[in-house]
Specification:
The complex is a heterodimer of chains A (465) and B (255). Chain A is 75% helix and 1% strand. Chain A is mainly α and 465 residues long. Chain A folds into two domains: 4-81 and 120-158; 228-463, MetI-like fold (Orthogonal Bundle), CATH 1.10.3720. A two-stranded antiparallel ribbon of chain A has the order 1-2. In chain A, helix 7 packs antiparallel against helix 12, helix 10 (317-342) packs across helix 12 and helix 14 runs antiparallel to helix 15. The radius of gyration of chain A is 31 Å and the shape is flat. By secondary structure, chain B is α/β, with parallel strands linked by helices. Chain B has a single domain (8-250), classed as P-loop containing nucleotide triphosphate hydrolases (Rossmann fold), CATH 3.40.50.300. Chain B has ten helices and ten strands. In chain B, the strands form two sheets. A six-stranded mixed beta sheet of chain B has the order 6-7-8-3-9-10. A four-stranded antiparallel beta sheet of chain B has the order 2-1-4-5. The mean pLDDT of chain B is 92. Classes of the chains: A mainly alpha (465), B alpha/beta (255). Chain A binds chain B through residues 266-267, 344, 346-357, 360, 364-365, 368-369, and chain B through 54, 56, 59, 61, 84-88, 91-92, 94, 96, 98-102, 110-111, 114-115, 161, 164-165, 168.
Chain lengths: 465, 255
């Protein structure tokens, strides 16, 4: 046997069979009868679905649970059989050892790094098979018991339709919790790994230190053996690019685009321009990235040189910020658009009727009235911008500098995470773990920004209901 | 019916929304001393007609107006007529109270500010107080001028809108069903106010409430399906209408 997948297929096939049998039973109930409301409570389809779902759901849940724990149980058994001298101890070593064993067992590897691995391959195979078999037996039993029990309940007055409704409800709840649980898992792993990082590097140094140089040497006699993990330059770079330069570009342009589209453009122009503007949001960020790296960054450097800035760099905060600002325009403009459209037409008419021009009406009445909605939109745009990675990696560089010179290269939290986690690394070094701490900080900041922005927008919507 | 020296006059006025004709060949003279009521069933075009006098129909994308409207004898569609100034001379109060989301003070100061009518803080204070007094709202809001206009009750908001309109000292005030969103007490206050303002401003009021038209106006025009059916002294029109359709409407046969 090769894992749980064939078992899952068999379970599904049997559930389908259950559906067919239940439906046949339902059809049989109706044969020869004059059907009125109440003659047979449910349609044959519901009898079939009831049997299939009752059989399927417990079996699938058991298989899913088993799939999660099986690897670990097998690994425990296998490693217990390894002679003590060769036995892997740390989590990392265990993982590497089991990779060897699995590779050998599947004939994907010719030979293992750890000689002990070869010896336990037969044990691994046997244990896996035994466990798969056990899972299969449990799943099939549940399937059979559930199916037969469900089938035995089918009668003309059995409310299969209502039962299916309830089962579907559970199915939907299950589906929606998957996303929530995944998010929860991500947060937990961030917290856990960050905690490990903070055991090596004090939180105060990380949060307030101004020197970032995560490159720790492998041997202690090398130069620069101790890394520096003061993340302030990264936080600053993130704010400088995402919240300052990008917003200087995106807020005025987005605002004015939205004002034009809602107040000046006639319906035909609006119908064409609005989707085109929103198309900007659909451009993959890597495309913006190479646009920034190949076109904008050199132009910015030349401009800096022309201005007489000696250290104008080919990778600059300005280039990344400008392009990121362009990318964010649709966010700002579509939120502003919504906010302006939500201002009641009577208010605009009231201003026109006082003899105000369009511009006076926009600046004195509409924008102030829509300000909370616009603020919310800008905050959402900021949270999008500070999480953005590709443009920064490609156009702003990876040098963690604490500078306010926009022509200099800086880096952001997200770009630094990429740099930390790509390439070869060991998973228990401070360098790698620092990525989790950075991710945690970024996550908390964007989460708070989003919560605040959404609450601003929601309160504002309520004000005009 | 013609007036000797009308404040506003319309001649052969037609309004189209796209292909649909909303106003059909209406001619009317409106005097400066009177309150003129426009009545008629819903959708008869009375509000559309009212919005011609300050060219508010310009703000509707597919609206088209033909014919002539004169303010003090000058064509308001003439090329040299500044619509912004026209609207300062012809103020408007809407069906739903629409104070701006600003303080009470700033709501009233809005017109004087954009038209540059006050040269200093003291003069603006005086203008605002004066407008609020004339709108009969001063005593209720004098201690809370900094509060938002939207914190007032519906009737107070509508009087604030009237104060806002008269703060620029217009010549005409157009009122588009100003009491339809208000309760009877607030309605009575607005009607009293209209009576107080009569004579100082030419007032044109659209209403679907015939009792209201009878109470506040001296002239009444009856509209039906975009046409003006009858126009005359309010007392005559309500007691002794000439047209059968007017009679049917005021006696409640339809509408």
């Amino acid at each position: 046997m090769t894992g749980l997948f064939p078992i899952l297929l068999a379970v599904l096939a049997l559930a389908l069979l259950g559906y067919w049998i239940g439906r046949q039973r339902g059809l049989a109930m109706r044969r020869g009868l004059t059907i009125r409301i109440g003659t047979v409570h449910s349609l044959p389809v519901y009898h079939g679905l009831y049997v299939a779902l009752t059989a399927l759901l417990p079996a699938v849940l058991v298989l899913a649970g088993w799939a999660i724990v099986e690897e670990r149980l097998v690994a425990d058994r296998v490693i217990a059989a390894v002679p003590v001298d060769f036995r892997p101890v740390s989590e990392i070593d265990r993982g590497a050892f089991m990779n060897d064993v699995r590779g050998l067992a599947n004939n994907a590897l010719e030979a293992a790094f750890n000689p002990a691995a070869t010896a336990v391959v037969p044990l691994y195979r046997a244990t896996s098979e035994a466990f798969d078999l056990a899972a299969g037996v449990v799943a099939m039993t549940l399937l059979a018991v559930g199916g037969i029990w469900a089938f035995s309940r089918l009668r003309p007055d059995f409310r299969a339709r209502s039962h299916v409704e309830k089962l579907l409800r559970w199915l939907l709840i299950l589906a929606s919790t998957v996303a929530i649980l995944t998010t929860f898992g991500i947060v937990l792993s961030l917290l856990f790994e960050s905690w490990r990082f903070f055991q090596i590097v004090p939180a105060a140094e990380f949060l307030f230190g101004t020197h970032w140089s995560p490159q720790t040497a492998i041997r202690s006699d090398q130069i620069g053996s101790s890394g520096a993990f003061g993340a302030v330059p990264l936080f600053w770079g993130t704010i400088f690019i995402g919240a300052i330069i990008a917003m200087i570009v995106a807020v005025p342009l987005g605002l004015m685009a939205a004002i034009y589209l809602t107040q000046y453009a006639d319906a035909r122009v609006r119908r064409v321009l609005k989707p085109m503007l929103e198309l900007l949001a659909g451009v993959p960020t890597v495309v913006y990235g190479f646009f920034a790296a190949l076109i904008v960054a050199p132009a910015v450097r030349d401009f800096g040189v022309w201005l007489g800035i000696s250290n104008a760099s080919g990778e600059s905060a300005l280039a990344a910020g400008l392009v990121m600002g362009i990318m964010i325009i649709p966010f700002v403009s579509s939120m502003t658009d919504d906010a302006l459209m939500a201002v009641p037409a009577e208010m605009r008419d009231g201003s026109y009727a006082m003899g105000a021009t369009r511009a006076e009406t926009v600046t004195r009445v509409l924008v102030p009235a829509a300000l909370p909605g616009i603020t919310g939109g800008v905050l959402l745009a900021v949270s999008r911008a500070i999480g953005e990675t590709m443009i920064v990696v490609m156009a702003a560089g990876l040098a963690a500098k604490l500078t306010i010179n926009p022509f200099d290269s800086v880096t952001t939290v997200s770009a630094q995470i990429v740099a930390l986690l790509t390439g070869d690394q060991e998973f228990d070094s401070a360098k790698t773990l620092s990525a989790f701490a950075l991710g945690l900080v970024l996550f908390i900041i964007t989460l708070l920004l989003n919560i605040y922005a959404l609450s601003v927008v929601r309160n504002y919507r309520e004000a005009y209901e | 019916m013609t007036e000797p020296c009308p404040k506003l006059s319309a001649r052969n006025l037609n309004v189209f929304y796209g292909a649909k004709q909303a106003i059909k060949n209406v001619s009317i003279d409106i005097s400066r001393e009177h309150v003129t009521a426009l009545i008629g069933p819903s959708g008869c075009g009375k509000s559309t007609f009212l919005r011609c006098f300050n060219r508010m129909n310009d703000t509707i994308e597919n609206a088209r107006v033909t014919g002539e409207i004169r303010l003090d004898g000058r064509d308001i569609h003439a090329a040299d007529m500044d619509v912004v100034q026209l609207r300062a001379r012809v103020g408007m109060v809407f069906q739903k109270p629409n104070p701006f989301p600003k303080s009470i003070y700033e709501n009233v100061a809005y017109g004087p500010r954009i038209h540059g009518l006050a040269s200093g803080r003291a003069e603006m204070d005086r203008l605002v107080e004066d407008a609020l007094r004339r709108a009969g709202l001063w005593d209720e809001v004098r201690d809370r001028l900094a509060d938002s206009g939207t914190t007032l009750s519906g009737g107070q908001q509508q009087r604030l809108c009237i104060a806002r309109a008269i703060a620029v000292d217009p010549e005409v005030i157009l009122m588009d069903e100003p009491c339809s969103a208000l309760d009877p007490v607030a309605t009575a206050k607005i009607e009293e106010l209209i009576d107080d303002l009569r004579g100082r401003y030419a007032i044109v009021i659209v209403t679907h409430n015939m009792q209201q038209a009878a109470r506040v106006s001296q002239r009444t025009a009856f509209f039906h399906m975009g046409a003006m059916i009858e126009y005359g002294e309010t007392s005559t029109l309500f007691t002794n209408p000439v047209q059968a359709r007017t009679k049917d409407y005021i006696t409640g046969r339809y509408g």
